[in-house]
């Protein structure tokens, strides 16, 4: 029975090899990384502002940021894409707007605005994790508010914020595939388009999976290094693949 | 706050979160939705098709008295959901139901994305595909076809045809929206290779999204099967028009797995009976598509 199933597997490794470095796939992979990176920049900048607003004592800023987070987290991102691209283009019949509001820009902005809501929560948690007394302590040592933020509060808050931010970026890399709803072609959909022509579905999805694994793994290594760097002052610094490899090769006793 | 009040508050929040769940559960009871199932009015005696219906007992796919058909139900007038319902309608659906009536079997439509239809057919998700699918050599390598309609491609453009498009060659340098996996996608990409100024081909999962893209000026043209493009133009309140030329007329086919020989034979027989009885022509007339009738041999 099982032998029969195995005998009837038709998987064409040749197709996988043909498409792995196909220019169309590579271009789409780059598209995925560019969209995700730009959107992440938008998300981090706007999310930091929103996060600070969320912890501020100003009720207007606080409520405004809260509403923003509520809206962008409570609706699916594909709906947000459809609204911001097709929806806006339908109601705004202005040629100048339509010429400039391209599907690519709409995708970057939508993903960025969506990410900002999640980043705001991460920033809020990061700031909240530092005891308020530390600010007073820093000021009593003669630091200005800005100096205290930069030297005392932020280094500690960043340590809390980096791991979830990295996770957000990894999620973003994968979620960009929903931009196909407005006609943007990134990695997954480049593979899907090819498979719709040659019917080699498993083979092309394997190609896509391979590249996602490569990119996310590479980024995860980078993230681990960054976390280790930020933990410089801690007694127990997290081990990374690189630090372990170095301690093995260098014959040191490790850290 | 005492631990007790905390627990009470948590309980309150949890109960609130359950409210939508209860609402949906209540809704489910009073509305039975057999989703995309459509049963012919009379499943038993064949009516107008005349002659005794063929015996379907030798067809493995019809042993349960039902033919399951995969279709991308977003392609009016060929297949679409009646507004506000989950009842499929359209020429393909009417024809399938007529075949079901003639054979004394039930017809069930399953909604599925167009680009995955053939793969899903070959993995037994359904036993046939009726989805305005044009017969072409690439698809014939994967499945067999029973031809049933003859349709070309229509070019849908903004009213007034601002880019003065006459045929495929005029699409060079423009942006063209098509549905993923359609012959029109292949047509436009092949044309693009022959252009000095390539065509920006934008693909969508469904054709209505491609039409939306044209309507909102994201692209300059949409290519789809002529009856579909024609209806889209009609329903656009004068915003869109379809060019009068039909490109590459070709037959639509009911797609079947390569090993469905008995089913293929019986469907060919049923279709022939509907043509002889005039019911085929009547269904086409119902959808204003008499011109798409298969040439009679």
Structure description:
- The complex is a heterodimer of chains A (255) and B (297).
- Chain A has a single domain, classed as MetI-like (MetI-like fold, Orthogonal Bundle).
- Helices cover 79% and strands 0% of the residues of chain A.
- Chain A contains 12 helices and no strands.
- Chain A has helices spanning 2-7, 13-20, 23-55, 59-74, 77-91, 95-100, 103-128, 133-140, 145-175, 187-198, 201-230, 241-250.
- In chain A, helix 4 packs across helix 7.
- Chain B is α/β, with parallel strands linked by helices and 297 residues long.
- In chain B, strands 7, 8, 9, 10, 11 and 12 form a 6-stranded mixed sheet that branches.
- The model of chain B is unreliable at 28-49 (pLDDT under 50).
- Classes of the chains: A mainly alpha (255), B alpha/beta (297).
CATH class (first level) name of the largest domain in chain B: Alpha Beta
Protein structure class of chain A: mainly alpha
Question: What are the segments of chain A in which pLDDT stays under 50 over at least 5 consecutive residues?
Answer: 251-255
Largest sheet of chain A: none
Sequence-ordered SSE layout with sheet pairings:
The complex is a heterodimer of chains A (255) and B (297).
Chain A: H1 2-7, H2 13-20, H3 23-55, H4 59-74, H5 77-91, H6 95-100, H7 103-128, H8 133-140, H9 145-175, H10 187-198, H11 201-230, H12 241-250
Helix pairs in contact in A: 2-11, 3-4, 3-7, 3-9, 3-10, 4-7, 5-7, 7-9, 8-9, 9-11, 10-11
Chain B: H1 3-30, E1 37-38, E2 66-71, E3 80-81, E4 88-89, H2 91-103, E5 106-111, H3 117-122, E6 128-129, H4 137-142, E7 144-158, E8 175-179, H5 183-194, E9 200-204, H6 207-215, E10 221-225, H7 226-234, E11 240-242, E12 247-256, H8 261-277, H9 279-286
Parallel strand pairs in B: 2-5, 2-6, 8-9, 8-10
Antiparallel strand pairs in B: 1-5, 3-4, 7-10, 7-11, 7-12
